[in-house]
Design goal:
The structure is a single chain. The protein has 195 residues and is mainly alpha-helical. The protein is 73% helix and 1% strand. The protein has seven helices and one strand; from the N terminus they run E-H-H-H-H-H-H-H. The protein is globular, with a radius of gyration of 19 Å. The N terminus is likely disordered.
Length: 195
């Protein structure tokens, strides 16, 4: 995703060996090759987003108490959409580590804001004895929605060039469009009066 060698299509055995080693690929035209990262280094490159998610989640949950679930959810969803948009715009045009850093910060702060607030909003209207069921339904529907969007994104990726920059960009723009639509729905939730 970060680097794609234009010759890989002509040399599938080289592409297979690179994939087997877990090399991260760069999409900077004219600078094709691999970053030479091991699978562990690749995983560690996503550590910042996980750390931000873990450390900011409780603050976002507290923000729900202060500002309400829908405004916090809308802010988080907007940050997620912005992170995907930055990735879609900059992939293949900027240094991969810079793109990854920006996306990790926006996603690492946006995800816990959106998830915490939406989970709280999902159980807010349920009675004491139904909160477990409401939370379970929220989580199941979130997983189902994620699966559906993953399938649509993969279809867009393959239809627009596969593992080339154009394919990744088409897949990312699909995620941006869905994220912005969900952000709009969340913003509309801020206008509904509480029961």
């Amino acid at each position: 995703m970060f680097l794609y060698d234009r010759d890989c299509g002509r040399h599938p055995e080289r592409e297979c060996r690179s994939a087997a080693r877990g090399d991260v690929r760069r999409t900077v035209p004219g600078r094709e090759g691999t970053l030479g990262w091991s699978p562990l280094q690749t995983a560690l490159s996503f550590l910042l987003g996980g750390l931000l998610t873990g450390t900011t989640a409780r603050y976002w949950a507290a923000a729900v108490t202060r500002f309400g679930a829908w405004p916090v959810a809308t802010a988080g969803l907007f940050l997620l959409a912005a992170g995907y948009a930055v990735w879609a715009v900059l992939i293949g045009r900027a240094e991969p580590l810079a793109v990854l850093l920006i996306q990790q910060v926006l996603g690492g702060v946006g995800f816990p804001a959106a998830y915490s607030a939406l989970n709280i909003a999902a159980v807010a209207g349920a009675g004491q004895e139904e909160q477990g069921l409401a939370s379970g339904l929220f989580n199941a529907s979130a997983q189902l929605g994620t699966s559906l969007i993953t399938a649509v994104t993969a279809t867009m990726l393959v239809a627009h060039g596969g593992a080339m920059v154009g394919g990744y960009r088409a897949g990312l723009w699909t995620v941006v469009a869905v994220s912005l639509a969900i952000t709009l729905l969340s913003a509309l939730g801020t206008r509904t009066p509480p029961p």
